[in-house]
Structure formats: C-alpha cells, structure tokens
C-alpha cells in the first residue's frame, strides 16, 4: 500500500512523540495493596517525577500481565522491560537464587540483610550474563506455618495438603510428609476456598492479602526465613535510555530498596495484628516443632551446598564472616 503524504507525515509526527516519551511495563506477581507492590508503584512514580514524564512505567500487579514464574523470562526476552520476581522461585535454574529460601539460614531482618550482601555480587553476575540488571531487592516478612489444626511437632503435618510457592517450600513438605501442591500467591485464595490447600508457609503479609483467616485459624510464627523479591531490568532496554534517565532509575531503585526494607519490617507486626483481629491465633511454636523444622533446614542446607557448588560455599563463607 502506498501511503498518502498527509498520512506519512502524521505517522512521522507520532514517531517523534513516542521518542520523547518511553513507556515501560513492570509486571509483578502480587496484589496492588501488598507492600511490595506499593513500594514498586512509588518507585515508578519517583522515576516519572525525576524524568518529568520521559519514562513512564506501568505496574501490572497480581500476575495480570505474566504469571509470577514467567516474569523473569519475560524481562530477559524483552517482552517486559522490567519486572519483580521472587528470587527463590528460580532455585531449580540456579541454586543461588534460592539462598534466601533456606529455613533458618537467615531468620531475622539483620541476618537477612547480611545474607543479601553476601549473595548480591554473584546474583548480579548471573543476571548480567542473562542480560539483566538487579535494581533492588526487598524481603518478605518472616515465614511461619498456616495450618487448620493445632500442631506440636512436624509429625502433625503428615498427610496435610500443603501449598508450596517455590521449590524449597515443596521440599519442606516432602521432608515433613505433607502433600505439596505449587500455587502462586495470585491463586491462593481460590485454592483455599476449594480445599486444595489446608496449610502453607508464608508471611503475615500474604496471609492477610489472601484472606487466609477465612479458611485457616492458626499461624505458627516460626520466623524461619525471609525470602526476597527483586526488581530486575532488561539491560538492553536500560542501555537505550539517555544518561539522566538511567541515573533517575538507579536513584529511584536505591531509594526503593531502603524504603522497602523499612516497610517490610514495620508492616510485619501490623499484618499479624490484622490476622488476629480477623480471628486467627498467632502462636509461638513449641520447642519440638522448632527443632523439627530446624532439622529440615539443616538437611536443606546440605542439599543446597551440594547443588550450588563453589559459588554457594563462597556465599555462605562471606555470610558467616559478617
Ligand atoms: N509471600 C509470597 C512469597 C513469600 C511470602 O511471604 C507467597 O506466599 O507467595
């Protein structure tokens, strides 16, 4: 088809406007009201402001653009310019992604920050090899056990239908004799409503987001680990930005990391209070349950060291020295 002159001019003008403003997509796996999503939304707004609207980032919450386990590949392939992932979702691809999903390796915010520092250089190297940049990473609150009936030891979890969100939480189920089924956060409410899930490990945050209190009455506050989300960017998309815009993205990322850690910490108690208000019992685990789950953690660390090889040993050695 031959373009008429006015049409050709009009599309040229449109192309000019598109150059002046860059539009990016940012898929995430968690709902709009979740603190990670709020933090990421603030990050996008900060960039909009700092670049006077030159870089517009649309946050697609709750796995509406890509399912959580697909976001990493989408960013790598450039279908999305940036995205938020749960690092430990990708531990089968490379064990180091799962470092912060190991029970009781780092079970407080302080320990978790140290583990992040130890993990970060190798993480950045791996993501760079895959054509991506790590912009920031923020932990979920400490993970505990949601369960329908009271439990005193890991043996009480035998045969229970257990929701896993990553390979590590599926492995925990195997080690305690529960029946794992992998369900991402966006589908968790429905899985509980249909009876597919009777128990799972996660944070107060996800328990609240998914209205777990409508189905499950007990939360054992194990404080077992703090898995991290990470904001990753396609390197080619980043390189195509002009220097001031790149600087704005990096600055907003650094701010989001600081803000996110503080938010996670301060909201943890709020979420547990909200669960209580909605009828849940928040229970400190018995010594038996704690020691049973610690044994599970020891086994998983040994398995992880075998899989992760020298890189894994480097991370653990660096962490233990901090
Ligand atoms: N919430 C996410 C991951 C860890 C967490 O606290 C989930 O349950 O899917």
Provide a quick synopsis of the model.
This protein is 49% helix and 17% strand. By secondary structure, it is α/β, with parallel strands linked by helices.
Features:
single chain; 322 residues; alpha/beta; D-Maltodextrin-Binding Protein, domain 2; 2 domains; 6-stranded mixed β-sheet; 3-stranded antiparallel β-sheet; 11 strands; binds pyroglutamic acid
Notes on the protein architecture:
The chain is of the alpha/beta class and 322 residues long. It has two domains: 9-92 and 109-139 and 227-270, D-Maltodextrin-Binding Protein, domain 2; 144-224 and 274-321, D-Maltodextrin-Binding Protein, domain 2, CATH 3.40.190.170. The protein is built from ten helices and eleven strands. The strands form three sheets. It has a six-stranded mixed beta sheet. Strands 3-10-4 form a three-stranded antiparallel beta sheet. A two-stranded parallel sheet has the order 1-2. The longest helix has 35 residues, at 243-277. The site of pyroglutamic acid has 9 residues, from helix 7. Pyroglutamic acid is lined by residues 86, 140, 165, 185, 202-203, 205-206, 227.
Q: What is the total domain count?
A: 2
Spans of at least 5 consecutive residues with low confidence: none
Class based on secondary structure composition and strand pairing:
alpha/beta
Strand order of the largest sheet: 7-6-8-5-9-11
Strand content: 15-25%
Helix percent band: 40-55%
Query: What's the N-to-C terminus distance?
Result: 67 Å
Q: Label the overall shape.
A: globular
Strand segment count: 11
Which ligands are bound?
Answer: pyroglutamic acid
Mean pLDDT: 95
Count of DSSP H/I helices: 10
* CATH topology name of the largest domain: D-Maltodextrin-Binding Protein, domain 2
């Amino acid at each position: 088809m031959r373009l008429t002159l006015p049409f050709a001019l009009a599309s040229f003008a449109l192309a000019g406007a598109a150059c002046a403003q860059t539009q990016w997509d940012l898929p995430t796996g968690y709902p709009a009201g979740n603190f990670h999503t709020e933090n990421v939304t603030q990050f996008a707004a900060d960039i909009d402001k700092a670049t006077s609207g030159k870089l517009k980032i649309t946050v697609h919450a709750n796995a509406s653009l890509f399912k959580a386990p697909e976001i990493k590949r989408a960013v790598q392939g450039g279908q999305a310019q940036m995205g938020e992932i749960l690092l430990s979702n990708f531990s089968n691809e490379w064990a180091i992604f799962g470092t912060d999903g190991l029970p009781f390796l780092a079970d407080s915010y302080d320990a978790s920050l140290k583990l992040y520092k130890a993990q970060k250089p190798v993480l950045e190297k791996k993501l760079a090899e895959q054509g991506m940049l790590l912009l920031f990473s923020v932990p979920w609150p400490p993970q505990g056990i949601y369960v329908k009936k009271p439990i005193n030891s890991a043996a009480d979890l035998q045969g229970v239908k257990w929701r896993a969100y990553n390979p590590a939480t599926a492995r925990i189920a195997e080690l305690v004799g529960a029946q794992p089924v992998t369900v991402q956060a966006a589908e968790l409410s429905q899985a509980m409503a249909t009876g597919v899930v009777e128990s799972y490990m996660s944070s107060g945050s996800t328990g609240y987001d998914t209205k777990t209190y409508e189905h499950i009455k007990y939360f054992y506050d194990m404080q077992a680990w703090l898995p991290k989300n990470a904001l990753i960017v396609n390197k080619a998309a980043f390189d195509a930005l002009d220097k001031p815009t790149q600087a704005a993205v990096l600055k907003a990322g650094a701010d989001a990391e600081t803000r996110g850690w503080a938010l996670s910490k301060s909201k943890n108690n709020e979420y547990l209070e909200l669960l209580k208000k909605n009828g849940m019992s928040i229970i400190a685990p018995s010594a038996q349950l704690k020691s049973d789950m610690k044994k599970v953690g020891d086994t998983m660390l040994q398995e992880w060291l075998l899989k992760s090889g020298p890189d894994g040993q480097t991370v653990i050695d660096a962490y233990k020295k901090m």
